[in-house]
Amino acid sequence: MSQSKTLSLRDSTAVAIFGGCGLAIAWYALSHSILSGTAGTVIPALGAIAIAGVVPSLVTRKAAERRNSDTRFSMAQQLEAFEKHACLNIVDDTDKLTEVNEKLLELTGYDREDLIGKPVTYLYDAIDRKLASKIRGNLRSGKSWEGQTPLRHKHGHVVVTQSTIMPLFNSAGNWAGSISVRTDVSRINELIAERHTAQTLYELRDDIWIIESETETFSYLNRTAESRFNTNSDGYRSQSISELNHSKETAEVLTACRELKASKKTATQFETVLMETPVDVSIKFLPGTDDAGRYLILVTDISERIAQEKQKTAFISTVSHELRSPLTSIKGAMGLLLSKSAGELPDKAVSLLEIAHRNADRLILIINDILDLDKISNGEMDVELKAVDLSELIKEASNANAMLQQRFGVQVEMIGMDATVPFNTDPNRFIQVLTNLLSNAYKFSAPNSTIHIEVKDEDAHVRVSVKDEGQGIPQHEQQKVFSRFSDMTNSDRALKGGTGLGLSICKAIVENLGGTIGFESSEGVGTTFYFCLPKVPLQGTKVIEDLDKRTA
User: Fold this and answer.
1) Cα–Cα distances in Å, from 520 out to 467, 516, 525?
2) What's CA 510's distance to the chain center, in Å?
3) For residue 379, what is the enclosing H or E element?
4) DSSP assignment string, 394-415
5) Strands 422-425 vs 450-458: parallel, antiparallel or unpaired
6) Measuring CA to CA, how many Å separate 505 from each of 156, 465, 468, 484, 487?
7) Greater confidence, 384 or 90?
């Protein structure tokens, strides 16, 4: 009992005693003045004694009852506040739920009827029931348990609670169940996980930028990004991307962000040079409300990868150059033997020579493709522009593929080439592109079908297309058509030949000529490859003008 309560008890007892004595004296005086004789002596004395003994007892008892009532009222208020704050449940000695409060029902989504009478493990996910068994063993030994308990919500997700679970005992001292007091800590755990994630992002080797789309200001940079911009959290917040980078090297990134938002797309990726470092940039637009949002930008340094690619390319180029000369000689020698320059050969020997000659030719084509890729990568693919007749170039390319026409049993139809089609281009590169497209068309056309080659004047451009009636390109593979070494599931390269480099080289040549290349395809119907070349060469196109000016 506290000191204040002890004083209060003493005060009330003293008041009761003094009050009883005062009433006893008053009774004695009054009764003695009224009565006389023996009665006047005995009755006042007995009455005074009785009053002095009974009144303090009654007063003290009433005071105790008032104090007990106040204590019970205070405890009820405390329990009510506690129940509103925490989740409570009571479990009997058979581990079944006998009582749950509204706070627990609200947290788990269950109704009271869903839980009462069910084993307490009903609240636990399957993987967490070992924890429930451990807690029960602790309680049976008379020990309380504290810790985090994951509870299963009615809709399947997990809510994490910080719990204190105490054993209950009956009057005989036997274990009778337990009472659990739980507090929801799911949000706290989420915040801790978010903090850990933020710490991980901050320490990444790649740049992480977060930019507000409306103001184009930084809201977050990780450590690597801060180092790139030579700033810190106090220096970049609320600054625009253009303000932070005065040399304007982030202009391409900012342009890509704006285009992404305008196009309503969610992501884009490209390679560029940022502050003298080659990087891969991935941008994700995270929409918000009222067309606002954020750009999440990941910048990856690809210097090491590019250096490795250069080393690999240089090695392949060297090997290819070394192989081409002996292969050309071998092919030439086999050609002479097949032309009977050394006399007649047995039929079996001729058959073997033809196989070797075809494979030597294939190897030379592969080497030429690799060397072309090397030139493209190093920006060394020069273009020699001449005045030509496109119809004649197309017929020349078609004639060069006559053997394929016979092999695959396909017809060729030419459209728009009845008259001369004057043009200014590199004839060798033009034939290289068209030959690649025709070769693919032959390989993937159905027997006895027709390939359509068409030239069309489109004002500032000339469009050349090659249409086949083959099996088409699957929709899910169309995005990799112009990639190096691309191989479609229906290409059957081993049977039909090819390196997987042709279309990649075609794209590079056409773009180097200032044009564009593309295709349209439907499975089971066919494919049309086309390329458009400008009538006037674009400025900046790497060209070597025809020195003899034969077109003058």
Assistant:
1) 9, 14, 11
2) 36
3) none
4) HHHHHHHTHHHHHHHT-EEEEE
5) unpaired
6) 54, 17, 20, 8, 15
7) 90
Mean pLDDT along residues 510-536: 88
Helix 347-377 vs helix 303-338: crossing angle, to nearest 10: 150
- Is the alpha carbon torsion for 33, 36, 37, 39 positive or negative? negative
Question: Which residue in the block uniquely carries the two structure tokens 């008890």?
Answer: 9
- CB proximity list for 244: less than 8 A, separation 6 or greater: 218, 229, 231, 236, 250
CA dihedral 525, 529, 532, 533 (to 10 degrees): -150
292: left (phi over 0), alpha (psi -120 to 50) or beta: beta
User: Rounded CA gap, 491 and 459, in Å?
Assistant: 36
Q: Which helix (H) or strand (E) holds 62?
A: helix 37-85
Which string of b and e fits 525-538 if b means at least 16 CB within 10 Å? Answer: ebbbbbbbbbeebe
- Dihedral-angle region of residue 112 (phi above 0 means left; psi in -120 to 50 means alpha; beta otherwise): alpha
**Structure token pair of residue 226:** 């801060």
Place of tokens 């001292």: 173
The residue written with tokens 């305008």 in the block is 262
**504, 511, 464: which is closest to 482 by C-alpha?**
504
Give the pLDDT score at 463.
92
What letter represents residue 337's amino acid? L
Based on its alpha-carbon atoms, the radius of gyration of the chain, rounded to whole angstroms, reads: 47
Helix (H, G, I), strand (E, B) or coil at 310: helix
Give the tokens for residue 87.
């989740």
Tokens of 266: 């969610």
Could you tell me the two tokens for 257? 């962000």
For residue range 413-472, list pLDDT tens digits in order: 888 888 888 888 888 888 888 988 988 888 888 888 899 999 988 888 899 999 998 888
Closest by CA to 474, choosing from 524, 543, 411, 519, is 524
Dig out the tokens for 197 from the structure.
């994630």
Mean pLDDT of all residues in 299-325: 81
Q: What angle do CA 200, 205, 211 make, to 5 degrees?
A: 75
Tell me the C-alpha distance between 531 and 455, whole Å. Answer: 10
Helix, strand, coil percent values for the chain (each to nearest 5): 50, 25, 25
The answer on pLDDT for 176 being more than 90 is no
What's the average model confidence in pLDDT over 260-286? 86
**Contact (CB, 8 A) for 239 and 217:** yes
> Token pair of 353, please?
């020579």
User: Interhelix angle for 502-512 vs 427-443, to 10°?
Assistant: 150
Give the DSSP letter string of 159-195: EEEEEEEEEEE-TTS-EEEEEEEEEE-HHHHHHHHHH
Q: Buried b vs exposed e over 398-418: b needs ≥16 C-beta within 10 Å? A: beebeebbeebebebeeebbe
| H-helix or E-strand spanning residue 479 | none
User: Does residue 122 contact residue 115 with C-beta atoms inside 8 Å?
Assistant: yes
